[in-house]
Amino acid sequence: MGRTTALDPRARSAIRDLLADPVFELIPLRNLDAQADALPDRAAVSVTASAARGIEATVAASERLAERGFRVTPHLSARLIRDRDHLRALLDRLVAARISRVFVIGGDADEPGAFPDALSLLRAIGETGVRFDEVGIAAYPEGHPDIPAARLLEALAAKQPFATSMTTQLCFDPEAIRRWLRARRDDGITLPVVIGLPGVAELRKLLSISARIGVADSRRFLRKNTRLVGRLVRPGGFDPDALLAGLAPLVVDPALGIRGVHLYTFNQAEATADWLRAYRDALGVPAGVAS
Question: Domain range holding 83?
């Protein structure tokens, strides 16, 4: 953790605040509940959605985690929700579980139902009258493999009135994040941003997860995480410390509106939680998690 000593006092304080209460992302596989055992009590946990497992797996996992006291944010994948009745049933389950946060995405299902994209789902949720304390949407500093940049920007502006924050997809280039975020602020996008940060991952386990989430999903998983795979096969592997140091100048800039961190654990939660504890200790962060 020697890299924390290179941070000036202002950057150290900003990174300390950023890491005070991160979101840990989990994939709803069979080991999800065991993975959650490694996380701090009442941690903020995000549960992904996939075409292979269906939206019900995401909601069921979220219900279990909420029962255990975690602050849960299920991913509501538009293309996995059949129609308005299906949506209403899912929302009723979340309300009953006292889940007050959602993350709305378009998703990857090849044959969507009534909601082809995140915007149509956000509008439909608003029409149900169900209100959530927090509604997150995705942001793409380095673009999307299937969606042209102009469409991404148009969709982000259209989704902004329905959301409370945006979370960046995995990106290893702080300068790319800075350029993208500065441009969006100039465009009038004012949503607070949560930085998507890769946790500690081993290549063997990453590939194992890919093999367990279904053939189509595994292709998408590996395509989306190509940069991480590439870094894991390099000598020394991926180092989250260096990326955080690169993000420090962004975090201290209030005009960029960076609010927190979303840790992609790839269901290697214990390794990510251990790294986080050690890094926070080096920064002087007390043990525990914010309420």
Answer: 2-281
